[in-house]
């Protein structure tokens, strides 16, 4: 059989545009496919929420790929081990309440779990701004990464009842509100991290994962970027637990909106 090049392109175009069209309106949008965003996407999708994850890079996984200190091994504390089991990641007990796992396996397994649960991941999609109406975030403004910042092209608007800023240190959704003076109570200096303290830092990103503006939520490192808090050191459990906390909160808030 001779492969028909035109047919191959047509299949890709049909499939992609069906996915894109279907996701212009979602219950929840997650910006950034790091550990917090991916776990949140997985858990929301498992609960039947229509959730779409926009990631600017080719690959989902964010900082997971680099593991700790640029070495592809991650350390997770006891409290988060059940989350590894949930997505089928193998781990080793290292004593003192610590466990280790392969970061490549974690990134791949989390991504697969999210997509297979029904969270649509649109990669090469850079979120540039938020849509705000009547004092509420109603969606995000995005462009294909190849275009974003390079060409003068109108962006795509994705709407949702809840938007999670999972963009890590960049906290691009938080910054979009802050630069317009819309984040009351979080002055410009609020995002400055304190010195490293893994215990306090890990607790901070979990306890402070939440809503920072009507319709906008933070989890993972964007909590630190938005609110400050101590640096955590190379341990990943807090990112996953923060993703779980925010999934529960978003699901509850969406059910009240319905
Ligand atoms: C400066 C710095 C300091 C760090 N300090 C610590 C620390 O103290 N403790 C610690 O545990 N880890 C630290 N890390 C490591 C690492 O960032 C985190 O542990 C972890 O990966 C953060 O998870 P996350 O889910 O919050 O976001 P990330 O893993 O950072 O993932 C964010 C994702 O968002 C995507 N993204 C960003 N902007 C956009 C956009 N506009 N549109 C769409 N997608 C976007 C990125 O491509 C990425 O995939 C640090 C990293 C950096 C860069």
What do these coordinates show?
- The chain is 37% helix and 26% strand.
- With 258 residues, the protein is α/β, with parallel strands linked by helices.
- The protein has a single domain, classed as FAD/NAD(P)-binding domain.
- Helix 2 links the parallel strand 1 and strand 2.
- It is globular.
- The N and C termini lie far apart (52 Å).
- The model has no long low-confidence stretch (mean pLDDT 95).
- Bound molecules: flavin-adenine dinucleotide.
- Flavin-adenine dinucleotide binds next to helix 2, strand 7 and helix 7.
What is the CATH top level name? Answer: Alpha Beta
Q: Please report the number of helical segments.
A: 8
Q: Percent range for helical residues? A: 25-40%
Number of domains: 1
Shape: globular
């Amino acid at each position: 059989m001779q492969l028909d090049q035109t047919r191959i392109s047509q299949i890709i175009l049909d499939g992609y545009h069906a996915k894109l069209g279907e996701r212009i309106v979602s219950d929840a949008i997650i910006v950034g496919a790091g550990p917090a965003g991916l776990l949140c996407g997985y858990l929301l999708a498992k609960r039947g929420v229509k959730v779409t994850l926009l990631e600017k890079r080719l690959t989902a996984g964010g900082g997971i790929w680099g593991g700790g200190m640029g070495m592809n091994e991650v350390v997770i504390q006891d409290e988060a081990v059940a989350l590894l089991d949930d997505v089928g990641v193998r781990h080793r007990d290292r004593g003192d309440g610590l466990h280790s796992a392969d970061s490549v396996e974690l990134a791949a397994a989390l991504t697969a779990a999210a997509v297979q649960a029904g969270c649509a991941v649109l990669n090469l999609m850079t979120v540039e701004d938020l849509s705000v109406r009547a004092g509420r975030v109603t969606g995000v403004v995005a462009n294909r990464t190849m275009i974003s910042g390079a060409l003068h092209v109108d962006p795509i608007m994705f709407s949702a009842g809840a938007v999670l800023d999972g963009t890590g240190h960049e906290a691009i959704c938080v910054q979009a509100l802050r630069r317009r003076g819309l984040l009351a109570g979080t002055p410009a200096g609020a995002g400055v991290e304190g010195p490293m303290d893994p215990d306090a830092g890990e607790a901070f990103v979990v306890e402070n994962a939440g809503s920072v503006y009507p319709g906008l939520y933070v989890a993972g490192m964007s909590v630190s970027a938005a609110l400050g808090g101590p640096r955590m050191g190379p341990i990943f459990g807090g990112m996953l637990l923060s993703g779980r906390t925010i999934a529960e909160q978003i699901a509850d808030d969406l059910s009240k909106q319905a």
